[in-house]
Specification:
Layout (H helix, E strand, L loop, with lengths): L4 H12 L5 H12 L18 E2 L5 E5 L7 H4 L7 H12 L20 E5 L12 H17 L5 E5 L1 H11 L17 E4 L2 E6 L4 H4 L6 H17 L7
Parallel strand pairs: 2-3, 2-4, 4-6
Antiparallel strand pairs: 1-3, 5-6
Helix pairs in contact: 1-5, 4-8, 5-6
Length: 236
């Protein structure tokens, strides 16, 4: 049995109505008021952003937080900025998305067997939430993780997401010892899940070549292989 749209709708409702972190709420409102010139005619979402994807997902992708002029503008995770361009193109190539486009929440994009979420749901100043903000938001990620009984792979995009995913998983799955260290291509078994690490597809990483498309594709290939073989080492 997979999670239902009703389960996800309840979590999404709670996420979008959350105002627990005053600094982040103030930043959302400021960003929506002081828009980038390219988006001057647009109405910004300017609220916490819920997860997005397939209710029967076996791949859960965890990012850091919405982009100030990306998901904070469009209302859908990784939508409207260059990080999303990389993510949704890779998902499409790996068969997890019906199309590579990602510009608007109503662009027809559908995820197949994948769900995209984040550790923090509000766009933070300088893209840096603090630990208190992370911990205030983490229960939403825990609720999503426990709602899905189909998820087999958790893919963390960046070290912040890796640490957040480990902290969330530790609330209901045995914590591995020693604590797994983040790196591109890092793997760790956490209860019934395979935790994978990838560099975040931020401009800082993609423009410098720290993350290439082939490197990114390899992570999704690994996730697909684990999902399709049921995690049987003999078949991987």
């Amino acid at each position: 049995m997979s999670t239902t749209p009703t389960d996800l709708a309840r979590i999404a409702h709670d996420v979008t109505h959350c105002r627990a972190c005053p600094r982040l709420v103030a930043w959302l409102e400021t960003t929506a008021r002081d828009k980038r010139a390219a988006y001057a005619a647009e109405t910004y979402w300017a609220r916490p952003v819920p997860g997005f994807g397939d209710p029967a997902a076996r791949l859960l992708i965890v990012g850091l937080a919405p982009g100030a002029h990306g998901a904070n503008r469009t209302g859908r995770m990784f939508t409207g900025d260059r990080s999303g361009l990389w993510l949704y193109r890779a998902l499409h190539r790996a068969g997890f998305a019906n199309q590579p486009s990602y510009e608007r929440a109503d662009d027809g994009l559908e995820l197949r067997d994948a769900y995209v979420t984040a550790v923090v749901r509000c766009a933070p100043p300088a893209n840096r939430p603090d630990r208190v903000e992370r911990d205030a938001c983490l229960p939403y990620l825990i609720r999503e993780m426990t709602a899905f009984d189909t998820v087999r792979v958790v893919l963390a995009l960046g070290s912040f997401a890796w640490n957040g995913a480990l902290k969330a998983l530790a609330s209901f799955a045995p914590a591995p010892r020693p604590r797994p260290r983040f790196g591109h291509g890092a793997e760790a078994a956490v209860g019934p899940y395979l935790l994978l690490g990838s560099y975040h597809p931020s401009q800082q990483n993609t423009f410098t070549g720290k993350l290439t498309e082939s490197m990114f594709d390899a992570v999704f290939t690994r996730a697909r292989r684990h999902i399709d073989t049921g995690g049987d080492p003999g078949n991987e």
